[in-house]
Write a structure and sequence with these properties.
Blueprint (H helix, E strand, L loop, with lengths): L1 E9 L4 E9 L5 E9 L7 E6 L2 E8 L7 H13 L13 E8 L9 E2 L2 H10 L8 H13 L4 E6 L9 H4 L5 H6 L9 H15 L8 E6 L3 E7 L2 E5 L22 H5 L18 H8 L2 H6 L4 H5 L4 H24 L6 E5 H6 L1 H10 L9 H5 L6 E3 L8 E5 L3 H10 L2 H4 L1
Parallel strand pairs: 1-6, 6-8, 9-12, 12-14
Antiparallel strand pairs: 1-2, 2-3, 3-4, 4-5, 7-8, 9-10, 10-11, 13-14
C-alpha cells in the first residue's frame, strides 16, 4: 500500500514542500515540489514543479504572504486545487506530514507529534528561538487543519547524538550545563545523513565503514566529521550560530566580542514576542553579521565572482574558516578519510571555492581535477578529484526533503 508524504522544510526566509508517494521499506518517489522564497525580502516568489515540469517559476505573490505559515497554507491550497495533480485532491489524501525541526534537544530519532510532544518541542524553542518557531507554527496548523494526517518531526540535531562526550561538552560548570542543557548539539544532520548514505553507496562501501569530512555550504554553513558512518564532530554547537560564517551569521567569534559591539546586547530585541525571546546579541550575530555585513549582499555567487576588495575579503574568510575545520577533522579522524565532500547550494555551485579549499588542503592529500571541477554537477554524487590523489574529493547534491520522507517510509512506526 502506498501513501502520500508531505515533506516540509521551513527556513528563515523560505518554505519548501516536496510531495512523495511511498511504500513501506522503499525509497519514496517525488511527485511535486513547491517553494516560496523571499519572506524577509518581499515580494515573495513561488516555484512549483510537478513531475519534473516547471509550472511556476519565480511567480510574485501578494503581500499577504508574510510568514512561513502563510506560505505553507498558500502552497497547500495550490497543491490541492491543481486539477492536473491527482495525488492530492483533498487534505485527507495526505497520510504523513514530516517537518524539519532544527533543534531537537536530546532526541536521537524522529518523533510522532501529538499535543504532548508538541509542548516538549515548544519548550526547546528557547534553545533555538530563531530556528524552531517557524516550523512549530506550521506543525500547529497541521495538527488543527489536517486531523487525519500523521505529523512527524525530523530533527537536524538527531544525527549528531553520536558525538562523544569529550567533544560535545563545553568547559563550564557541569551542573549548570546539565540543568540548562548547554552542550554541542550540531545541525544540518538531515543533510549529513543523506550525504553519508549516498557517498557510501557511491564508494561501494557499507555506511558503517565510511569516514568523511563533509561541508554543507549554503547561507547557513557547517562542517562535519563522519567516523564509521556516524557523526564524530561538527562545527555548529548549542545553536546553529557557532562554526562557519554564513549569509547573515557571524559563525564562531570571541564570546566577549558582542559586548564590545553594542552596549544593549543583553536586552530583548524589539522583534521579541511572547513566543520568541530574542536578545539583541542573538539578533546581531545571527541576522546582522556574515557576508551581508562585509559586502552588502547575501549572494555568494556575486562574492565569488567579484574583484571588489570587500568581496575578496569575505571569500578569503570563508576559505580560511572551512580549511580550519578540514585540517582539524583530518587530525581528529587520524587521517582515515574516504573523501572530502562538498554539498549545499554553495558547495554544489562554486567551483572556485572548491578549488581554493582543496589547494589549501592539498598537503592532506585532497587534489581536484580542474576539468571535472569545472563541469556542472548533475549526479547525486560526483567525483571531482584527481586520480592520483591520496583521498577522493566529491560533490553531493544533498536532499533534506527526501531524507525526511525516507525516514518515514523505512520505519513502520512512522508509516502506519
Amino acid at each position: 500500500m502506498s501513501k502520500i508524504i508531505l515533506s516540509i522544510n521551513a527556513g528563515s526566509s523560505s518554505v519548501k514542500i516536496s510531495v512523495y508517494r511511498a511504500s513501506l521499506g522503499q525509497d519514496p518517489k517525488e511527485l511535486a515540489e513547491t517553494q516560496i522564497d523571499g519572506l524577509t525580502a518581499p515580494p515573495p516568489q513561488l516555484k512549483y514543479t510537478r513531475g519534473g515540469e516547471s509550472i511556476a517559476k519565480n511567480k510574485q505573490l501578494d503581500s499577504k504572504v508574510t510568514s512561513q505559515n502563510d506560505a505553507f497554507k498558500y502552497m497547500l491550497d495550490e497543491l490541492t486545487n491543481d486539477p492536473s495533480f491527482s495525488a492530492i485532491t483533498k487534505k485527507e489524501d495526505i497520510a504523513i506530514a514530516c517537518h524539519r525541526v532544527v533543534h531537537g534537544g536530546d532526541f536521537d530519532a524522529p518523533k510522532i507529534i501529538n499535543d504532548e510532544t508538541y509542548h516538549r518541542l515548544e519548550a526547546l524553542t528557547d534553545l533555538a528561538p530563531l530556528h524552531n518557531a517557524s516550523a512549530l507554527e506550521i506543525v500547529k496548523f497541521c495538527l488543527k487543519e489536517l486531523p487525519g494526517t500523521k505529523n512527524v518531526a525530523v530533527f537536524d540535531s538527531q544525527f549528531h547524538q553520536t558525538i562523544p562526550e569529550h567533544i560535545c561538552t563545553y568547559p563550564i560548570d557541569l551542573e549548570i550545563a546539565k540543568k540548562n542543557k548547554l552542550r554541542k548539539y550540531g545541525f544540518h544532520g538531515i543533510s549529513y545523513s543523506f550525504i553519508t548514505r549516498s557517498v557510501a553507496a557511491f564508494l561501494g562501501k557499507e555506511v558503517g565503514e565510511t569516514s568523511l569530512i563533509c561541508l554543507h555550504l549554503g547561507s547557513g554553513a557547517s562542517a562535519c566529521a563522519i567516523k564509521g558512518g556516524k557523526s564524530w564532530d561538527t562545527s555548529m554547537g548549542l545553536t546553529p550560530l557557532a562554526g562557519l560564517p554564513g549569509a547573515t551569521r557571524s559563525g564562531s567569534v570571541d564570546p566577549s566580542l558582542v559586548f564590545h559591539y553594542a552596549a544593549n546586547v543583553g536586552k530583548l530585541s524589539p522583534s521579541s514576542t511572547k513566543e520568541l525571546h530574542i536578545s539583541r546579541a542573538e539578533e546581531i550575530l545571527n541576522k546582522e553579521s556574515g557576508w551581508k555585513s562585509l559586502t552588502g549582499t547575501t549572494n555568494f555567487g556575486t562574492i565569488a565572482s567579484s574583484d571588489d576588495p570587500k568581496m575578496k575579503l569575505a571569500f578569503d574568510i570563508m576559505v580560511d574558516r572551512i580549511c580550519h575545520y578540514v585540517g582539524s577533522y583530518y587530525v581528529s579522524l587520524g587521517g582515515k578519510v574516504d573523501a572530502l565532500v562538498f554539498a549545499g547550494g554553495i558547495g554544489e555551485k562554486s567551483d572556485l571555492l572548491r578549488k581554493k579549499v582543496t589547494e589549501q588542503a592539498a598537503c592532506l592529500g585532497f587534489v581536484i581535477d580542474s576539468d571535472l571541477n569545472g563541469k556542472g554537477i548533475k549526479d547525486v554524487v560526483q567525483d571531482i578529484g584527481a586520480k592520483s590523489a591520496r583521498h577522493k574529493t566529491l560533490v553531493c547534491q544533498t536532499d533534506e526533503q527526501f531524507e525526511m520522507a525516507r525516514d518515514c517510509a523505512v520505519d513502520e512506526k512512522y508509516f502506519y
